[in-house]
Design goal:
The structure is a homoheptamer of 83-residue chains.
Chain A: H1 8-14, E1 19-24, E2 29-37, E3 43-52, E4 55-65, E5 70-75
Antiparallel strand pairs in A: 1-2, 1-5, 2-3, 3-4
Chain lengths: 83, 83, 83, 83, 83, 83, 83
Amino acid sequence: MVNGIERPLDLLNNSKGKEILVQLKGDRQLVGTLLAFDIHINVVLDNAKEVANGETKRSMGLTFLRGDTIVFISPASTASKGE
Amino acid sequence: MVNGIERPLDLLNNSKGKEILVQLKGDRQLVGTLLAFDIHINVVLDNAKEVANGETKRSMGLTFLRGDTIVFISPASTASKGE
Amino acid sequence: MVNGIERPLDLLNNSKGKEILVQLKGDRQLVGTLLAFDIHINVVLDNAKEVANGETKRSMGLTFLRGDTIVFISPASTASKGE
Amino acid sequence: MVNGIERPLDLLNNSKGKEILVQLKGDRQLVGTLLAFDIHINVVLDNAKEVANGETKRSMGLTFLRGDTIVFISPASTASKGE
Amino acid sequence: MVNGIERPLDLLNNSKGKEILVQLKGDRQLVGTLLAFDIHINVVLDNAKEVANGETKRSMGLTFLRGDTIVFISPASTASKGE
Amino acid sequence: MVNGIERPLDLLNNSKGKEILVQLKGDRQLVGTLLAFDIHINVVLDNAKEVANGETKRSMGLTFLRGDTIVFISPASTASKGE
Amino acid sequence: MVNGIERPLDLLNNSKGKEILVQLKGDRQLVGTLLAFDIHINVVLDNAKEVANGETKRSMGLTFLRGDTIVFISPASTASKGE
C-alpha cells in the first residue's frame, strides 16, 4: 500500500533512515541510507556507494548530493514489490 | 472526450491513480501509477518500471522523479485512443 | 493574415483546438491537438503522435509536454501557407 | 545607421514586421517575419522556414520559438551591410 | 591601465561603440561593434561577423545575442595589449 | 554515527576544516580542505588537488568551486567507514 | 594560512589585483588578473590569456567572463603552496 503520499516529497520523508537508490544524470547510480533532504532535492546519504551493474564501484560513506543532478530516487525496499 | 483540461496540470490531476508513461531526457522511459505531482512536475510513481522497446529493464517500485528530467507524460490508457 | 498576435502566447491561444507541430530538443517531433498551455509553455496535446520523416513512430493520445524541452511550436495548418 | 538602440530589445522592436534570421542552439537556423517577442525572447515568426546552407529545409508558416533555444537574431536586411 | 572597472558590467559599459570579440558556447565566435547590453548580458552588435581561425565565415550586420550563450567578451583593442 | 544531520547543509557544516572529495560534472574530481560554502553550494577548498584514478593530476591550492558544477561532496574520512 | 575566508566570495575578494586561473566548462582555461566580480561570479580579467597544456593559445587582454561557464577559480600564487 502507498498510503500517505499526497505530495512528491512525502515519499522522501517516508524514506528517511531507509536505503534508497539514486539515479544521477550521466548514468551514475548511488545507494545509501537517506538521512536528510531539502526542497531542492539535495540529499545526504549515509554509507553511500556508487554502483554499476549490481557491483559496488566505490564506497563514499556520508555523501551530500546536489539535487539538480538527480533523475530519480527509489526506496530500495520497494524495488521488486511491484511485480 | 477531453473534458476538463483547461490547464496543463489538469491532465496530471486527472491521471492520479492511473498508469502513465514518462519519457525522460536521454531516452529513458518509465511506466507506473501516478500517485502525486507538484508544480515543478516532480512526480511519484508506484510500481515504476524502466522500459525500453516494450520490455521491462528494471522494476523500481515507488519512485520519485525530478521534474526537470521529464520530457513528456502520457496516461497509458490514451496511447492508442487517437487512431 | 496574422491579425491579433501582439505577444508570442497569442499564437498558442489562437491554436487551441487545432493541430500543432511541436519540435523538441534532441530532434524529437510531435503532432497533436493543442488543448492547454501555461506561461512555462507546458502544453497538453490530444491525439499526440511522435513523428519522424513524415511517419508516425508512436501514438500517445493525451500527452503533457514540459515547456523546457520545446524548441518551437507551429500550427499545422500554416505549414505550407508561407510559400 | 543604428540610431535608437539603447537596449538590446530595441533591435527586436525595430525588426517587427521585417524578415529576421534566428540561429538556434544545435545549429538549426530559421528565417521568417518577426511578429511578436517578449522579455524571455520567445518570438513568433510568420512564414518561418528552416534553412541550411542557403536552402529551405521545411516551411512552417506561423511559428512560436522558445527564447531559451535562441543563440542570436539578426534582421536579414542588415546581413551584408557591414562589409 | 584599467581604471574604472569596479564591477564586471563596467567593462561592457566602457566598450560601447567599440569592437568586441564574443566567444559563444559551442565554439562559435563573433566580432562586432557593441551597441547595447543588459543585465542578462544580452548584447546587440553592429557589423557582426562570425569568425573562425581568423577568417570571416558570415556577415550578419546588426545582431541580437542572447546572454546565456556567451562564454566571454573581450574588447578587440586590448587583445594583444597584455604582452 | 551520523548525529546532527537534519538538513543536507548540516553535513557540509560538519565538514568545515576537514578533507572532502568533490565530484564535478564531466568526471572531474577534487580533494581539499573545506573552508567555506554557501546556499548555492559554492565552496572554497584549501590545498585543492584534482585527482584521477587515485593520482594527483594538479595542485591548485586555494580554490573557489561554483556550486552548479558539483555532483556530490563526501568527507574523505567517511569513505570506507560504511563497509 | 587561509585567514579571513568565511564565505566563498571572500576568496575572490582577497584575489582582486592578483593573477587567477579560471577553469571553464568544456575544458577551456584562462589566466589573468582579477579586476572585478559580482554575485553571479561574472568576472573581469586583465591580461587574460587562454592556456592549454601550459602554453598560451591566445591573448585577449581585458575580458568579461560569464559566471555560469565557470567551473572553478584559483589564485595562481597558491597553486603549489599546498604540497
